[in-house]
Amino acid sequence: MAHVADVLISGAGPTGLVHALWLTRQGVSVRVIDKLDKPVKASRAMAVQARTLELYRQIGLADAVAATGHPIPTMNLWVKGQRRARLPFAEAGADVTPYPFILSYPQDEHERLLIEKLQSMGVEVERQTELVSFEAKPDHVLSRLKKADGPEEVFKSAYLCACDGAKSTIRHQLGTDFEGGTYKQVFYVADVKLSGLEPAGEAHIALDNADFVAVLSYGRSGLSRLIGVVSDADPDTLGFEDVSHRAIDGLGVKIEQVNWFSTYRVHHRVTDNFRHGRVFLLGDAAHIHSPVGGQGMNTGIADAINLAWKLTAVLKGQADDALLETYNQERRAFANTLVETTDRVFTFVTAESNFADFVRTRIAPVVAGLAYLVEGVREMMFRIVSQTTLNYQESALSAGTAGKIEGGDRLPWVEVGGVDNFGPLSHIEWQAHVYGTASPGLKAWGQRRGIPVHEFEWHDKHGQAGLARDAVYLLRPDTYVALAEPHASVEALDQYLQSRALVTKYFVQ
C-alpha cells in the first residue's frame, strides 16, 4: 500500500478524463481507473457547448476539438413536416464567444482525444480496474481495487473522486440520496446514414404530436445521429423498426443504413451533497437529467474543472479545506436548476393530450419563430444552450459589481483587432483584468500578491459587453469573476481576501 497519487479518479468518461487533465496540468498526481476494458463506442453524448470549448483553451484542446468535430451553426424546428423556425446560432453568438455554434462530436471520439492528451502528460488510464469499496479516514482514503487479471489492491490517496456514472458504486456506498424520478418514455439513439435532409450540416428537431426526433449531423458522408423517444416500450426488445417514424418522415429523409441502435431509460435526479469529506461526486454520479439541450456531458466537465482548481489549492496548502465546500454549493445549485429546466422542456415536448398537441405544434413554433426575430432574444437563447449564462453569483467566493458584471459571472468575451481578452485565461491561475488603465498601486499590489494584472486598452466593445472602464476584475483559476471592484481599490481587494479565509493562503503575502 503506497501513497502514489493525491487523487484517485474512478471512471474514465469525459468527466473523469477532464478532471485528471486539469489536476495534472496544475501539478497534482492522479490515478485514473475504469472497470471497462475499452471506451464505449456506441456513445450517447454528441453536443459540445461553447462554454466547454472556452475552458478547453486552458489546456490547449479547444482548437483540436473544434477542428475534429462538426460545428453546427443553425437549429431548425419542424412541425408535422413543415419547417417552422430557423435559429442561427452563428449570428446569435457572434459577440458572445469565439465558438458561436454547437459542436457535434461523438463521445467516443471526444474521449479518445482526451486520453491522448492525458497520455502526453504522462498519465495512463488503467482499464479493467474496478473500485470495490473504500474507507474514508480523516486525512486520506483507502480504496480497495480489483483488476480483472490480478489480486485486490488497497490504494491510499488524499481524495477520491467518483466519476463512475449514474450507477456509481461510490455513491451507493456513501448511501447518499439520489432524489428524482424516471421518465416513462424510452429514449433511443441511432447512428444512421441518411439522405434528403436539408440543410444537411445543420441540426433539426421535428415534432409530431407526442413524437419527436432530433437530428445532429456528423458533417461527413450523410452520417447523422438520431435521438428520439418511445412511450411505454421495453428497451430490451425495442429495435429501430419499432420506433415511430412520423417525425422522421416529416423531415423528408430516407434512412439508408442503421449503423447502431441503442435504447435507455432516462432519470432526473440530483444527489443531496456533492461532497462527503474526502470523497466527491461528479457528473452523472451526482446528477442525471433529460438529454434535452445537450447539457449533460458539458455539465459533468464543468464539475470536473470547478473541483480541480480547488483540490489543487488545498493539496498545495494554498487554501483552507473550507474552499472545497464551495464545490458542493456552486455545482449542486446549477444541477438542480438544470434538472428542473430540462424536465419542464421534456415534459412539454412529450406530453400526451389534445391541448398539449395544440400548444406544441401550433402555438410554440409561432412564438419561437417570432421571438427569434428579436436580437436580444436570439442571443439569450444561445447563451442558455451554450452554458455561457452559468454563474456563481450566490457563491461564498463571489462579491462586488462593476458595470453590469457581478462577482460569480463568467467573464465576458471581447475581441478587438483580432485579439481577445481570453488569451491570459489559458493560465490556470488567479489573475486580475483591467479594461482601461491600471494604476501603479494596483500593479504593485499584483506583484506583491503574486497575481498577474492584465491591462487592456479601453474600447467601446468592452462597455457594450458590460465591463466598466478602469475597474478591476479578480478572476478565479476557472475564469469566473471572483470580485468585481468598480474603483480598482487595492483596499477592497485586500478586504476581499482577508474576509475569505477560504482563499487567503493562496496569495503571496
Short recap of the structure:
This protein has 509 residues and is of the alpha+beta class. Helix content is 30%, strand content 29%.
Rounded to the nearest angstrom, the radius of gyration is: 23 Å
User: Mind telling me the CATH class of one domain?
Assistant: Alpha Beta
CATH-scheme architecture of one domain = 3-Layer(bba) Sandwich
Shape: globular
| Overall strand count | 27
Taking the alpha carbons of the first and last residues, their distance comes to 38 Å
The residue-averaged pLDDT reads 88
Helix content: 25-40%
Outline the biggest β-sheet. 8 strands, mixed
CATH topology of one domain: FAD/NAD(P)-binding domain
